[in-house]
Amino acid sequence: MPQTFTVTATWDEEAKVFTSSSDIPGLVVEAGTFEEFVSLVEALAPEMLAANLPNVKRPYHFDIQSHRSLAVA
Predict the structure, then answer these.
(1) N or C: which end of the chain has fewer CB atoms below 10 A?
(2) Model's pTM, two decimal places?
(3) pLDDT at 2 over 90
(4) How deeply is 5 buried, as exposed, middle or buried, from its count of CB atoms within 10 A (0-12, 13-18, 19+)?
(5) How far apart are CA 62 and CA 4, in angstroms?
(6) Rounded to whole angstroms, how far apart are CA atoms 57 and 20?
(7) How far, in Å, CA of 15 to CA of 27, rounded?
(8) Please, are residues 65 and 9 in contact by the beta-carbon 8 Å criterion?
(9) pLDDT of residue 70 exceeding 90
(10) What average pLDDT does the segment 38-65 reach?
(11) Mean pLDDT, rounded, for 40-45
(12) 68 compared with 46, residue with greater pLDDT
């Protein structure tokens, strides 16, 4: 069964970017759109897994979640 890793995209209103938190060691992603964020995770997460968790074998899945707080005055 494939192992699943979770990546959370949190919107930083001040910087106007999504920033990452995840259970993938070394993965740091920052992007202006959610689509760009997902593309960067797709490109970088396998590299970070290979470098930092070499015992993890494919296939694996990425559960990408988005979080954004909205203040209404």
Answers:
(1) C
(2) 0.90
(3) no
(4) buried
(5) 6
(6) 23
(7) 19
(8) yes
(9) no
(10) 96
(11) 98
(12) 46
30 has a pLDDT exceeding 90 = yes
List the beta bridge partners of residue 31.
Answer: 18
Q: Residue 50: how many CB atoms within 10 A of its CB?
A: 11
Phi-psi region of 26 (alpha: psi -120 to 50; beta: other; left: phi over 0): left
| φ/ψ of residue 42, rounded to 5 | -60, -35
Across the chain, mean pLDDT equals: 95
Burial letters 14-48, b for 16+ CB under 10 A, else e: eeebbebebebeebebebeeeeebbebbeebbeeb
Structural domains of the chain, with CATH: 3-67 (3.30.2390.10)
Amino acid at 66: S
Angle at 25 (CA atoms; ends 19, 52), nearest 5 degrees = 145
